[in-house]
Write a structure and sequence with these properties.
alpha/beta, Fructose-1,6-Bisphosphatase, Chain A, domain 1, 2 domains, 5-stranded mixed β-sheet, Inositol_monophosphatase-like, 3'(2'),5'-bisphosphate nucleotidase CysQ, CysQ/Inositol_MonoPase
Length: 246
């Protein structure tokens, strides 16, 4: 029996994370060069495995030259071999590996590995998790270096606690696991930045949309997908209303 898409995504994300950890541990590269080599190695391995395991599917990767071939495919794997290059190079925990599958433009299947966490963690659309309970003001995830103006406005209106964090995948998974309630991003992303995280978030019952409330659509000719909202469902309406009035 062939492996399910969700199981394959989780296996590949976890294994790519190990490749990245091993590379960093060898100490052959530092700084920007480490991130570049990590991107190259993880991407080469992921692309090879996906081509072997799902040869009829399309493929879009941040680290591979894009072609129009994927546009005629119903099923397209969308991957980011190393989300959070800076955090990876700094040996922080908030970087990720994304392996997502869009079916007819919808992020249906995905896995996000967080190899930098103690013991590592892989969150998959195939295995929803029970989030940690939180009592008190909602927590909003924002960029470590450049919090979006819309996010700051929402945080002020709702009385949110701001939680700075690195990569997009790490922030999205923090909502999934209950470390925060809202992740709003408006500073520009691409499909590989959020396809896998959105698939995992959707499987866990979270609200996922553009910040104007429209759906997130994948496998477009232009891969720029500038904004998104991932949040607990009970906050979605309020957040969208605040952003619309901003």
């Amino acid at each position: 029996m062939s492996q399910t898409d969700a199981a394959l995504a989780a296996e590949l994300a976890e294994a790519a994370g190990r490749i990245l950890l091993d590379l960093r541990a060898r100490g052959e590269f530092e700084g920007k060069a480490l991130g570049q080599e990590g991107d190259r190695l993880a991407n080469a391995w992921l692309v090879e495995r996906l081509r072997a395991e799902r040869p009829d599917d399309g493929l879009l990767s941040e680290e591979s030259k894009d072609t129009a071939e994927r546009l005629s495919k119903s099923r397209v794997w969308i991957i980011d071999p190393l989300d959070g290059t800076r955090e990876y190079g700094e040996a922080r925990a908030d970087w990720a590996v994304h392996v997502g599958l869009a079916i007819d433009g919808v992020a249906e299947i995905g896995a996000v590995a967080l190899p930098g966490l103690d013991g590592g963690l892989v969150l998959s659309s195939g295995q929803p998790v029970a989030p940690a309970e939180h009592i008190g003001a909602p927590r909003m995830l924002v960029s470590r270096t450049r919090p979006a103006a819309e996010a700051v406005a929402v945080a002020e209106a709702l009385g949110c606690e701001l939680v700075p964090m690195g990569s997009a995948g790490a922030k999205a998974m923090a909502v999934v696991t209950g470390q925060a309630e809202i992740y709003l991003h408006s500073g520009g992303q691409y499909e590989w930045d959020n396809c896998a995280p959105v698939a995992v978030a959707r499987a866990n019952g979270l609200h996922c949309s553009r910040i104007d409330g429209s759906p997130l659509i994948y496998n477009n000719p232009d891969t720029y997908l500038p904004d998104l909202l991932i949040c607990r469902p009970e906050y979605a309406e309020q957040v969208l209303e605040i952003v619309a009035s901003f």
